[in-house]
Amino acid sequence: MLMTIMVIYSSYVLISIYVSIMQIGYINQAKRKNAVLLGQAEFLQAGNYSVAKEKMSILSSFVDYILFTAWLGFGLSYLSEKIFIQDEALLNVVIVMSFVIINSLISLPFSYYEKFVLDEKFGFNKSTLGLWLKDTFISFMMTLILGSLVVWGIYEIISSFTLWWFWSFVFIFVIVILINMLYPTFRAMFFDKLTPLQDEALDAQIKLLMDKTGFVSSGVFVSDASKRDGRLNAYFGGFGKAKRVVLFDTLIEKLETRELLAVLGHELGHFSHGDIYKNILLVGVMLFAMFGIFGNLPESLYLELGIGKEPYVVMILLMLFMPVLGFIMMPIMGIVSRNNEYAADKMGSELAGVGGEIELANALKKLVTENKSFPLSHPLYIFFHYTHPPVLERLRELGVDIGTIDESSMQGKCESGI
Q1: Residue 51's domain spans which residues?
Q2: C-alpha atoms less than 13 angstroms from C-alpha of 239 in its C-beta half-sphere
Q3: Per-residue pLDDT tens for 243-254?
């Protein structure tokens, strides 16, 4: 059984690296051709940024594979032997959180490199080292506290129920829903400063859009996201009366009013179509499959690992294998999500009024420019990674003439430059 798990994980790593290499080769070919949506210099820069990100992703995959092998080879047994606490619940919490902390510390250099090397080089980073350290410390403490409570809850479920994997799934699924409800509140408490939108005319127009779709919100807020990052974004968060509309200050600065309304109309389209519930349902299916599989692993696996079938072992195995199940589910979730995006684009253009499709198209172009998003991708990369349709496809669907783009000479070529 252990060999089977290693083969599955190794296949996952090889496929993900192969997809990244194909993407790098495709972009290296595409960035030398005529620019699309961007100026030639910006097109090349966006391509270089995408390639740099993929190279970092490949390195991260190698590190993850080494960690996976190390944890199964000796890490789990080492923690089991070195940590001794009489209280069983506390023992399980300490061992699982030790696993989480070690992995988090190993990932820190990647986080630092992405923020202060890659994002700095390409003009995204607005944060300081002090602010990054503060954010990292807060995230660490939240993970430690909330993670410990979750581990304790799962331990109690495993210890109390024969069908523990099903009730653990229910427990985690409820937590996923709570996270969606409380995310805007937690983000405002610990990270971004949210202030009510001061532009009364814009506020009135946004509320008119919300009234058209029956969206009830606790208010429209502006996030001071520019102190950390130069990218443009907006999000709706929460459920019921706790819902909030949050606009990044960078978005307000860069988009015209009608473009901004078209973007918000797109987001309201997701609400109107119940997309958030569809996404949560898909996450629920993935969680159910994950707990179903790892709740019924044969005893022989634990014998091969040289450790008992303790709750902390089951939880760590779940976390180790979660990326694999996510990778398998992603194409399915991506197909559903991309279809949802087309429908939301249609509604966003309609809510924006006459010429709304042009306003949304202009907004999409600005998002590509400001976020340095390379507009072309390898089909295989789109299949495995894209939750949104490629921007060119979205523009075509909106009826925008983007001209003819010759991608035939790039299909299947690999010029990675690694």
Answers
A1: 2-194+268-397
A2: 12
A3: 777 888 888 888
